[in-house]
Amino acid sequence: MIDNELTLLDRLNEIVDEVHIDEVKKIIASLSKINKLKNAIEEDLSEDILYEKICHELKVEFDITNFKIVHVNDNYESVLFESGDANNYSYVFKNTFSSNIHINIFLDNNTLSEYQILSLNTYFKELVHLLYIQFVLLDLQKSSTVDHLTQLQNRTSFNIEMKTLVPLAIREKMKFGVLLINIDRFRAVNDEHGDEFGDEFLKLYANTIKENIRTSDIAVRFGGGEFLVLLIHVDSEERTMQIAEKLKNKLADTYLLSPNSDQFKKTVSIGVAMFPEDSSDIHEVVKFSEVALGDARDLGRNQLVRYENSHSGSIEFF
Q1: CA distances (Å), 29 to each of 32, 111, 119, 144, in order?
Q2: pLDDT beyond 90 at 92
Q3: With helix as H, strand as E and coil as C, how does 3-59 read?
Q4: Mind listing the pLDDT tens digit for each residue in 172-186?
Q5: Would you tell me which CATH number, out of the four given (3.30.70.270, 3.30.70.20, 3.30.950.30, 3.30.160.100), belongs to the domain 155-306?
Q6: Is cis: bond before 276, omega within 30 of 0?
Q7: For the chain, which residues make up each domain, given as ranges?
Q8: Model confidence pTM above 0.85
Q9: What does the angle CA 56 – CA 59 – CA 60 come to, to the nearest 5 degrees?
């Protein structure tokens, strides 16, 4: 007959000598906590939940509040999370995923016992794989909303952000200026100097745009040689036109040295529309800026045109 009163701990007492039994039980308890934490994190890999649980665990189990988690790819470091304000870290856990990808965890605690260090190593060996999964998920999310070439937002990101921003603008009575910028005859850049040169030219123009708008404004690559700039909480239509004129001149002066060492430049055409003056639907305002951009091109390019509500022509998409 099987004795149904016995437990695994009873069996443990039978096979482990008295000298080590307490240490073995302690290790098992720690492994159980680690597994419980891992399972809890796996249920929700969202960034906030992940780091909140790690912070809690380090504080409760090890009295650690100063730490940072760093992702290393080809010697380029990016801080995934940082807690506290320590400048020097007394402990580092390094985990290698491939020859060029690592996740390093730095801690500030000089009083860790040998057993605590062993426990931390075990914790991080389990957690670091979840950290890497979470990093990959975030990277995939970013790649779907950021233009890989210019690092500006893409259309998808713009549409997502508008779902939150437009209701706020309506409630707070904010004005937006929409500038649709097109590099005049951009195809000629690739035709004349090749795609690689054209890519560098686009990156240069994207950087010029970012440098000449506020950090609160939004710059988007719409595709090809076309960019959209959303001026957030702009004072007036007059101010919007002033910023558009400034961008037009700055971009026209921007150049890239060609293979022949010439200063290669391109003018731009800009269509302008206003939210909510032209429409309370931001996507319709964007369409109106496309109409204005079409008018600018029809006028011979290198033009800045404000959308007119009386415009009767059809909308052309570029």
Answers
A1: 5, 22, 11, 42
A2: no
A3: CCCCCHHHHHHHHCCCCCHHHHHHHHHHHHHHHHHHHHHHHCCCHHHHHHHHHHHHH
A4: 889 999 999 999 998
A5: 3.30.70.270
A6: yes
A7: 8-145, 155-306
A8: no
A9: 85
